Amino acid sequence: MRKQSVRAPRVVRYTELKEQGLVEMLHEGDDLIRLLQERGFICVEGKVTFAPYRLMLELEEERIEYQVKSFGVDDVHVNPHSEFSLPHFIDDRIINVDGFREPRRIKPPNFVPRNIFDMTFSEASAYTPFLTEDNKKGLLQMIRNFGFVGTNHLSYRLVHNLNLRKTEFMMRSYVDHESISYEFQLEGFIDDREDSD
Q1: CA angle, 93 then 143 then 167, to 5°
Q2: pLDDT by residue (tens digit) across 134-186?
Q3: Interhelix angle 51-61/32-39, nearest 10 degrees
Q4: N or C: fewer beta carbons within 10 Å in the chain?
Q5: Where are the domains of the chain?
Q6: Packed helices 139-146 and 156-164: angle between N→C axes, nearest 10 degrees
C-alpha cells in the first residue's frame, strides 16, 4: 500500500508494547481512540461491523490515518477481532526462517473470485483505473475480482459483506488536506508500490 504520513515523534513496535503489557484485547467500553493514540496499536474484539466499525467512524471524524486488519477465529483468539495501528507502528512479532521478523498476515479469502487475475497493483490499475477512483458501487465485486479496491468513503456495506463472508482483510486510510481515502486489500494481492512498513 502507498505511504501514509507519519505524525508520531518515534516509531512504536509490537514487541515493545508487548513487553509493557499493552497489547491486550480491548472491548467496546474502553476508550479505544485514546488508547490507539497513546499506544499506536490496539486489538479490538468483536466482528468488524460492531465496535471496530464505530472506531473507524471516530477516526475518520478526527481525520486520523490508520490501518486495520480484520481477523477471524484462530488458535489463539476464540472470537473475531481487528487490529488497529497508526502509521508509526511496526508489527515485528513474527520471526521467519531467516531470522527476520514479519508482520502477521491475513488469510486468503475463503470465497473463489469469479475472475481470477494474477496482477500486481500497477497492472490492475492500468487495466482497470476505476479501482482507485471514488467508488461507491460495485466495491465487493471489485475486491472479489482483483483483491483490491480504493474508495473515498468508508463503505459499511463492503465491511459488512466481507464480515458476513468471514473474509479477513486489511484496510488503510489516508488523509490528504481536505479528503480522506481508503484502500481495502485481500491476502494474495501484490501491491508493488512502495510499502510504508
Answers
A1: 50
A2: 666 678 888 887 788 888 888 888 888 888 888 889 999 999 877 888 989 88
A3: 70
A4: C
A5: 12-185
A6: 50
